[in-house]
Structures are given as C-alpha cells and as structure tokens.
Amino acid sequence: MPTLKPAARTRRKPAAAAEAARASLTPERWVQAATELLVDHGIDSVRVDVLARALGVTRGSFYWHFRDREDLLRGVLHAWRNRATEQVTARFEQRHVPARELVRDLSSLPFRGQSAERAARVELAIRAWARRDEMARQAVDEADATRLAYIAQVFSALGFSIAEARQRAFVLYGYEIAESLLRQQGSAAQKSERRALVERLLLTPA
C-alpha cells in the first residue's frame, strides 16, 4: 500500500498544474495574445491551437474561458472598442478643458509616442479584418460613429452649426487616421506643420 502514495501524488501533479494554468490565464490574457497575433500575422493566424502553444497551455484551457473562437474574437473587438474609444473619450471628458484645447488634444493623438504607434498598428489590423468579416466591420463602423459624434460635440461647443460641426469632425478624424497610418511620411517638423495647419483651418469659421 505505501507504494501507491507516490503514484497518487504523481497523478495529481498534472491536474494541479493544469488547474494553475487555467487560473493564471485570464480571459484578458487570451484576448491580449489574440490581439498580438492579429497585429503581427493577420486574422487567419488567430486560432485556438496557435494561441494555446504560444501561451504554453492546452486547448482545453481555452474553453475554460471561451465558448469558441468567435467568442474570443468578440472579446478582441470589445477590448479594442473599450481601450481605443470609450477610455479615450472618458479621459477627454474628465479633463473639463475648453473646446479649443480639446481640438488640439484630439489632433495630437497620433503623436503620443509608443502608445500611439501601438494603437495605430492594432487599428490597422482590425480595419483589415473588417474588410472581410461582418462582425469586425460592424465594430469598426460603431467605433467610427462614436468617435465622430464626440468630435462633432466638441465643434458644436465652439458655436458651429450641427451640420458644420459634423463636417469639421469628419475632417479632423480623417486627419488623425491618416497621420496614424502614414507614420513614416514627413519629418517631425513637417508633421508639426501639418498639425498646426489642420488646427488653424478647423478652428477658423468659414
């Protein structure tokens, strides 16, 4: 009988290790890993088996948190929307600064160091995904609409009519996306000059 005890302990170790792996890998960690794969290799590479190998766990660990791959992809889109739209908007709203300063802050988003560069890479990957997937396209459309509505409110606070506020919001948003995606175009001085021009044009009544 004593010889059975070590065997019993040995059998329990893998189970305990698997349980520990499931506990340490939160849904957010899976979403983060999936986002990294999406950015580096595209949506076709975001597969359960690839993620499990990258994270050093079994496929079964994935199903501890998600029903299926689509459930994970919904999580990726939700995390992106929360980080790139809701949190950014909330930070601006909490500052309570004049609308003119908000316009300048919004125009500066593409130039905020490594965080801006990382955000641009994620944004580009998700937009590429949205060109071939309805769920991703809907998420992008909703994000664009939310961002444009917020920027339009800023211009409305400056006294522009609703129609003109929307038009100026579209120009500013288009400028932000262009600067994010065309990061290598122009020197730092040229980027600063472009930004100053956009701000001057958008803040000047027609």
Radius of gyration: 23 Å
Structural class: mainly alpha
**Shape assignment:** elongated
Number of structural domains: 2
Give helix % range. over 70%
**Average pLDDT figure:** 88
Counting DSSP H or I runs of 4 or more residues, the number of helices is 10
Low-confidence stretches: 1-13
Distance between the termini: 92 Å
Q: Which series of helices and strands comes N to C?
A: HHHHHHHHHH
Question: Hey, roughly how much beta strand do the residues contain?
Answer: under 5%
Largest β sheet strand count, sense and barrel closure:
none
Structure summarized in a few sentences:
The protein is mainly alpha-helical and 206 residues long.
Structure characterization notes:
The protein has 206 residues and is an all-alpha fold. The chain has 2 domains: 1-66, Arc Repressor Mutant, subunit A; 77-206. It is 79% helix and 0% strand. The protein has helices at 4-24, 27-41, 48-55, 59-62, 69-95, 99-107, 113-130, 134-157, 162-181, 188-203. Helix 6 (99-107) runs antiparallel to helix 8, helix 6 (99-107) packs antiparallel against helix 10 and helix 7 crosses helix 8. The chain is elongated and about 60 Å long. Residues 1-13 have low confidence and may be disordered.
